[in-house]
Design goal:
170 residues, alpha+beta, 4-stranded antiparallel beta sheet, 3-stranded antiparallel beta sheet, disordered C terminus
Length: 170
Amino acid sequence: MEKIAAFEKVSFEQFEKDWMKNFPETTDVKAVYDAIKMPKRATTGSAGYDFFAPADITLEKGKSVLIPTGIRSKINDGWVLKIYPRSGLGFKHRVQLDNTVGIIDADYYNSSNEGHIMIKLSCDAHDDGHTVELTGGDGFAQGIFLQFGITFDDDTDGVRNGGFGSTTQK
């Protein structure tokens, strides 16, 4: 298999800013940052790299949570990282990504937010009062690298700066 990418942590400053927006009750963000695990494949036959919860997170039925992973990915041109929920969370708890599939483009790495990968999950369980408890270090999403092509007449020359919606802002 071709090696086409590398995972890295974002800076502590970037992580702290993004984490506190979503989890302002956190008292020791440095401990959360230090506990971040790099995405990893579970077996040699696995296509997906598991993304791990940086801390304990509770997901309630009918609500969403945005999880700053503390991870960025340097990806070769012509490749994309697609993010999906872990299968077991979907089967057991109807956990899904709010944007259905996350798309991490190669040029996202150079964005002003350091290419910080954020994963927003929601729980659509059938039973009332249902919660999903993610323990820090639990796998909750998976990323798969895929190659892509472009059209013969492609003349794109835009430069990205940002995440959601940044490629359509002109």
